[in-house]
Specification:
single chain, 146 residues, alpha+beta, Nucleoside Triphosphate Pyrophosphohydrolase, 5-stranded mixed β-sheet, 2 helices, 9 strands
């Protein structure tokens, strides 16, 4: 058995937590992402020199077609995950902002997400949802409904 030579990187990302009634805005990771088929908050990586709030607005617009306005302070989440297919250990630092959104919902074309949707919270327990998304939703909206 050989030892894997892991590359280690840190990734800063901004995400939006938006609600409409009992539903939350989520985006599904596409086949070209490292998390294909899993759902998360809309958002993504902060580019070099970009302010996290600007990254949030850009990413939400790319993934959902919606205009996001930050309405509160972010929850900061930090975790390390291994992506064996790329021999990568990735330290995620995520800023999860409460947001209001407006506009017409649409899906990203040819990106790392393929579907955006308003999902009733009661349906989340039966979906493949990334753990950071569950943590952010609990922080801003309370426990998942039974």
């Amino acid at each position: 058995m050989t030892d894997v030579e892991w590359e280690e990187r840190t990734r800063l990302a901004s995400y939006g937590v938006a609600a409409s009634g009992d539903a939350v805005l989520l985006a599904r990771s596409s086949a070209i992402s490292d998390f294909a088929g899993q759902w998360s908050l809309p958002g993504g990586g902060v580019d070099f020199g970009e302010h996290p709030a600007d990254a949030l607005a850009r990413e939400v617009a790319e993934e959902t077609g919606l205009l996001a306005t930050i309405v509160g302070k972010p929850l900061i989440l930090s975790d390390v995950m291994e992506i064996p297919a790329r021999s990568l250990r990735l330290h995620h630092v995520r800023l999860c902002y409460p947001v209001h959104v407006k506009g017409e919902l649409r899906h990203e074309q040819h990106g790392t997400t393929d579907v955006a949707a308003w999902v009733p919270r009661r349906e989340l327990r039966d979906m493949q949802v990334l753990e950071f998304t569950r943590k952010a939703l609990i922080k801003f909206m309370g426990p998942e409904p039974a």
